[in-house]
Amino acid sequence: MTVHVFVDTNIFLTFFHYSQEDLDSLNNVFASHEHGAATVYLTEQVVNEFLRNREAKIADALKRFEDSISSIQLPAFLKGYAEFSSLKNTSTTMKQLKKAVLEKVQADIAASSLPADLLISSIIKNAAVINISDDAYSAAKKSVQLGNPPGKNGSLGDAVNWQLLLSKVPDGEDIHIISEDGDYFSKLDLQAPHPFLAEKWKEAKKSNLHVYRSISKFLKVHFDGTAFSFDKNKEELIEKLRKSGSFATTHSTISKLEDYSYFSLPEVTKLLDAIVNNPQVNWIWSDADVWNFYKRVTLPRINEITQDDHKQMLELMFVDKPQIDSTESLI
Description:
Blueprint (H helix, E strand, L loop, with lengths): L2 E5 L1 H5 L9 H12 L3 E4 L2 H25 L14 H28 L4 H12 L7 H12 L11 H12 L6 E4 L16 H11 L3 E4 L2 H8 L9 H11 L4 H11 L7 H13 L1 H4 L5 H11 L9 H13 L11
Parallel strand pairs: 1-2, 1-3, 3-4
Helix pairs in contact: 6-7, 10-11, 10-12
């Protein structure tokens, strides 16, 4: 049975602030759409809200980060204690690390190349975005003027999304809304849908409204333990690399995989399986294209790798031989 899902703008924006969620969870929701396990609805309103609010969310997160790491003020009477020098050195190191990481992250922010940017831009590019129709806009405006949820303080955004869902989700199909917006939730049971919205959905669609405050809560109910690849073509290329029967196939497959900017942890695990277990990949790991590709996709996940053979391979590639000339000729 296909699950019909709507992901609100505030969920996308959590990946640019402080959140317990990880990007793979967002990847899995939209991957489930590609695999036919779910139909995920992405509206023009959500895309526009995301683009409008991304910078503000990042700016607030950066300010909180900078404020949290400030110089330690050490009173003179601490100088006589053994810990004084360590505290002073730690403060200096923290300031140096803060400066270094901010320089890197600000460049990625400006280039829209944060990991969240790469995944979300891919989602938007591949999605069939639902445009805001005149009918949906008019119905949303009327609903807000009457004081009906969702929507507050005269804002039409949530109401527009609601009207688009009413028009696009097939009759008889439940809708699963993932949002931090309290308008979708009951005031008495914070995990249940707002009774007004639940009743209106049942009346219009002859089905039920389900709500979740996070992607992880939704995934636990519906796809717990299932990991999808967001892009079927990428999935096929990873499988092709795992089964590569020649050096030439390995090089050509790596070249095609370079077109993809984001790789989930399950995908990285499969790529490591390929380089550990397939001699047609393993024997040429030091070739420039193979080495550079694996460096790009595995090192950001280095702390998440758990298999011993994968760890040993990464140590061989990037510790024992930390630099490969990118101009090195291919086999």
